[in-house]
Amino acid sequence: MPRPRSLTPDQLASAALAVTDRDGLAGLSMRAVAQELGVSTMGLYRYVHDREELERLVVELVLSAVDTEPPDPGASWRKRVEVMVRRLRDTVGAHPEVVPLAIAHRHHSLGVLRWSEAVLAVLTEAGVEGERRVVALRGLLSYVIGAIQLEHLGALSGPGTTAITELPPAEFPHLAETARDARNVDAGQEFLGGLALLLDGLDAQGG
Fold first, then answer.
1. Per-residue pLDDT tens for 16-34?
2. Cα angle vertex 29, ends 144, 34, to 5°?
3. How far is CA 153 from CA 48, 76, 146, 179, in A?
4. Cα dihedral angle (104, 110, 111, 116), rounded to 10 degrees?
5. What does the alpha-carbon distance between residue 126 and residue 137 come to, in Å, rounded to a whole number?
6. N vs C: which end of the chain shows fewer Cβ within 10 Å?
7. Cα 44 from Cα 47, distance rounded (Å)
8. What is the pLDDT of residues 42-100, one digit of tens each?
9. What is the rounded distance in angstroms from the CA atom of residue 146 to the CA atom of residue 140?
10. Contacts with 120 (C-beta within 8 Å, 6 or more apart), sequence order
11. 166-197: buried (b, 16+ CB within 10 Å) or exposed (e) per residue?
């Protein structure tokens, strides 16, 4: 019989990501990845122990693509943080199904650790330290994660916004009016506008 072909970690990760992008997180399984690679499920167990190991490979593949090089040191701290946040959003946003995995396995990913280190360096230089720095980093991560999920699961251009515009104005006057305004806000405007408000808060506290 022919000898089973060897698979590299990159091939395993790429196959698992392809399954996740196509079939969603629920579709990620040892069997599905084995089929993607053209090997038997038992053959796949020669390389990974279980689905959790596949998840980690997917997370590292996606997050390792995030540019973690320090932004232009001549730019303001706000602009540098914005650059780092946009890099994370653009990379992870291309694979929205991976977001829950990124949350669960972020501590094992060199990509997100390097991204966090770069952001913390900018915040420290801006005078954000101690517990405030903890909250600032977590706030930025939470914002990116939430924004990606909203953009793909509940976009302002989606049917949910239209439904809210049709609420009885006597009962929900502000919500209905806001939904009507929301139809003119694109995804980029929404993301950068929310980020600006978050950075305004840091500025107001002396950042």
1. 999 999 999 999 999 999 9
2. 120
3. 31, 33, 10, 16
4. 80
5. 13
6. N
7. 6
8. 999 999 999 999 999 999 999 999 999 999 999 999 999 999 999 999 999 999 999 99
9. 10
10. 133, 137
11. eeeeeeeeeebeebeebeeeebeebbeeebee
Residue type for position 197: L
- Tell me the C-alpha to C-alpha distance, in Å, between residue 156 and each of 3, 27, 40, 145, 181: 53, 27, 43, 17, 10
Using CB atoms within 10 Å of the CB of residue 16, give its burial: 0 to 12 exposed, 13 to 18 middle, 19+ buried: buried
Q: What share of the chain is helix, strand, coil (3-state, %, to 5)?
A: 70, 0, 30
Q: Which two tokens stand for residue 78?
A: 């706000």
CA distances to 99, 150, 153, 183, 185 from 167, rounded to whole Å, are 32, 21, 21, 15, 20
Place of tokens 């094992």: 108
What gap in Å lies between CA 153 and CA 151, rounded to an integer?
A: 6
Nearest partner of 101 among 109, 91, 113, judged by Cα: 109
pTM equals 0.85
In the numeric block, which tokens belong to residue 18? 């392809």
CB 195 within 8 A of CB 166: no
Whether the Cβ atoms of residue 63 and residue 111 lie closer than 8 Å to each other: yes
